[in-house]
């Protein structure tokens, strides 16, 4: 059945022809598109033009589509991404804050190609120009959300700083194995506005000024560093966390505080080409009370954001009294994606410190999961038939009664979660208990545990903590030793290979909390491990041949955090 806005009679022919050709070209590019979207875009636009204009637009579309080639960055669908090439290198930030070493944080490049002579080695280090930034998470200038735009290229890695509020733009396109700080034009924004606009007239390019009026600047190009003052003055935001690229070509980064370090869950918006700070994504005065992570789902006009705490609260360590005082988050915020405003706030029952949030990768999905760190559970959020959103607890990790620790009961502390690209498996790390779990989420309402592996943690045998009562284990796990090295800390950040068969793990959470809960981690440095995944029946097994020991770094032990693949991964890319 054709939509009511389709033209009738002879007028339908060019519109239908244009529609079918656009659809064919899109499918040739392997774009996953919905027929009704093409009907709306192609036919409504055609009907609003004269016959001559429709013909011209038709050939413009043909020219644009045929230039697509492999289209833009990333992959057309999550399932196509699973067929992508095996990862060969990994990027991850390494932190020196709170280690006693006066050196800048740096971006490490690790070789993960088993056929390489440098397998499981750091092959490059890019130091930042400042001290004590606390690099944390990273993102891209563009990703699969721009797959349909052949002009976009995933060649810049965004490195926000959690403590200094500084942002680094790293060039990973020139030489992926040796990243460098992106060099930007030294022209100021005011000078950029004076650059003549090139206009099209009678088929010729003309300028309002002569080319000689544009002077070349002999000054060497500057490194692309966006200083904290840019975010403080333009947005009254700081303490940057999650970076996502948008289909508009812009970059959006979540913030945890205002310029003074008080709680404020806002979002900064950057131009995806110049990286100019454009302002806040949310409407003025519309920030959430607290911030942390976010994930958007444009087909349903929704974004979900989470809460940690005010930077002034968590920056120097964890104080249980702050939990009692209500200074840590327990809400999910539901945003109208088009209007940039909160439309619903979900109070989670037993959902303290909701950190990483993941929608299902299927862009048509109306549900996802969030890991609540302190209450150590996984909560499922979903859209109701009436258009509102709800949340329910679907996994609970029981606390353990212990002796010799900060509190009489030790939570698992779920600090990272991931979904496989086919939306079949959910993974999460219990940083304190020391295990990673794999759940089959074929039925999202009833996840089923199918894999578990212990990779260190606070309850290992021979450590200072004695487990008095445990609802899950009969005995405390053995310490983890890989290649003769006892692994300090517990599993924290995780990243899954595109095909879902390899899980990479690092052990640093946040330097101040590392120092508090795992002092040996700040002395010895963190580790990077690799776990083999059974994607048929479920199951996790450590790869004994892989170990990156960041305790052996040239300037001293470092704390390695989030992992990224050059071509995108399970937590960087969002499909629209």
Task: Describe the overall structure.
The chain is an alpha+beta fold and 576 residues long. It has 2 domains: 9-66, no CATH class; 78-183 and 221-439 and 446-560, YVTN repeat-like/Quinoprotein amine dehydrogenase (Methylamine Dehydrogenase, Chain H, 7 Propeller). 15% of the residues lie in helices and 31% in strands. The chain has 10 helices and 39 strands. The strands form 11 sheets. Strands 4, 5, 6, 7 and 12 form a 5-stranded antiparallel β-sheet that branches. Strand 32 (481-482) and strand 33 form a beta hairpin. Helix 1 (12-28) crosses helix 2 (35-47). The two termini are 25 Å apart. Mean pLDDT is 85; it is low at 1-52, 54-69 and 186-222.
Keywords:
576 residues; alpha+beta; Methylamine Dehydrogenase, Chain H; 2 domains; five-stranded antiparallel β-sheet; 10 helices; globular; disordered N terminus; nucleus
Outline of the structure:
The protein is α+β, with helices and mostly antiparallel strands. It folds into 2 domains: 9-66, no CATH class; 78-183 and 221-439 and 446-560, YVTN repeat-like/Quinoprotein amine dehydrogenase (Methylamine Dehydrogenase, Chain H, 7 Propeller), CATH 2.130.10.10.
How many structural units, i.e. domains? 2
CATH first level of the largest domain = Mainly Beta
Helix amount? 10-25%
Individual helix count: 10
Could you give the count of β-strands? Answer: 39
User: CATH superfamily assignment of the largest domain?
Assistant: YVTN repeat-like/Quinoprotein amine dehydrogenase
Low-confidence stretches: 1-52, 54-69, 186-222
**Major sheet characteristics:** 5 strands, antiparallel
Name the average pLDDT: 85
Catalytic activity: methanethiol + O2 + H2O = hydrogen sulfide + formaldehyde + H2O2 + H(+)
Pathway: Organosulfur degradation
Membrane topology: Peripheral membrane protein
Main location: nucleus
């Amino acid at each position: 059945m054709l939509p009511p806005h389709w033209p009738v009679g002879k007028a339908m022919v060019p519109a239908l022809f244009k529609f079918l050709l656009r659809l064919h070209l899109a499918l040739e590019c392997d774009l996953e598109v919905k027929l009704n979207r093409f009907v709306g875009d192609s036919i409504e636009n055609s009907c609003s033009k004269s016959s001559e204009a429709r013909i011209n637009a038709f050939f413009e579309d043909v020219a644009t589509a045929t230039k697509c080639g492999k289209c833009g960055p990333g992959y057309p669908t999550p399932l196509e991404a699973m067929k992508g090439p095996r990862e060969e290198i990994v990027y991850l930030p390494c932190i020196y804050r709170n280690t006693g070493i006066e050196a800048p944080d740096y971006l490490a490049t690790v070789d993960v190609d088993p056929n390489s002579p440098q397998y499981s080695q750091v092959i490059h280090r890019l130091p930042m120009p400042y001290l004590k930034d606390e690099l944390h998470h990273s993102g891209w200038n563009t990703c699969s959300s721009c797959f349909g735009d052949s002009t976009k290229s995933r060649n810049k890695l965004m490195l926000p700083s959690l403590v200094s509020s500084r942002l680094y733009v790293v060039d990973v396109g020139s030489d992926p194995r040796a990243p460098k700080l992106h060099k930007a034009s030294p022209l100021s924004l005011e000078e950029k506005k004076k650059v003549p606009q090139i206009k099209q007239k009678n088929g010729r390019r003309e300028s309002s000024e002569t080319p000689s009026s544009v002077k070349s600047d002999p000054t060497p190009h500057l490194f692309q560093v966006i200083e904290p003052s840019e975010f403080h003055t333009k947005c009254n935001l700081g303490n940057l966390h999650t970076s996502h690229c948008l289909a508009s070509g812009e970059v959006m980064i979540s913030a945890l505080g205002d310029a003074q370090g008080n709680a404020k869950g806002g979002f900064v918006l950057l131009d995806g080409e110049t990286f100019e700070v454009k302002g806040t994504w949310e409407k003025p005065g519309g920030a959430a009370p607290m911030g942390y992570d976010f994930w958007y789902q444009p087909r349903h006009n929704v974004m979900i954001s989470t809460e940690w705490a005010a930077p002034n609260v968590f920056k120097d360590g964890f104080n249980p009294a702050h939990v009692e005082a209500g200074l840590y988050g327990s809400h999910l915020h539901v945003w109208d994606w088009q209007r940039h405003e909160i439309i619903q706030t979900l109070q989670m029952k037993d959902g303290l410190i909701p950190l990483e949030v993941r929608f299902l990768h299927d862009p048509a999905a109306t549900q996802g999961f969030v890991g609540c760190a302190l209450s150590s559970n996984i909560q499922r959020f979903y859209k109701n038939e009436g258009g509102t959103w709800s949340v329910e607890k679907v996994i609970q990790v029981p606390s353990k009664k212990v002796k010799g620790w900060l509190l009489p009961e030790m939570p698992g502390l779920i600090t990272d979660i991931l979904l496989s690209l086919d939306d079949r498996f959910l993974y999460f790390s219990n940083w304190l208990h020391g295990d990673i779990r794999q759940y089959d989420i074929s039925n999202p309402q009833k996840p089923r545990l199918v894999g578990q592996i212990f990779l260190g943690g606070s309850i290992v045998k021979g450590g200072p903590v004695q487990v008095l009562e445990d609802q899950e284990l009969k005995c405390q796990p053995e310490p983890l030793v890989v290649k003769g090295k006892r692994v300090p800390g517990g599993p924290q950040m995780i990243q899954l290979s595109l095909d879902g068969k390899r899980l990479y793990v690092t052990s640093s959470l946040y330097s101040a909390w590392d120092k508090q809960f795992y002092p040996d981690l700040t002395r010895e440095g963190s580790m990077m491990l690799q776990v083999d995944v059974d994607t048929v029946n479920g199951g996790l097994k450590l790869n004994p041949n892989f170990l990156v020991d960041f305790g052996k770094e040239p300037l001293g032990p470092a704390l390695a955090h989030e992992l990224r693949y050059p071509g995108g991964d399970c937590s960087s890319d969002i499909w629209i």
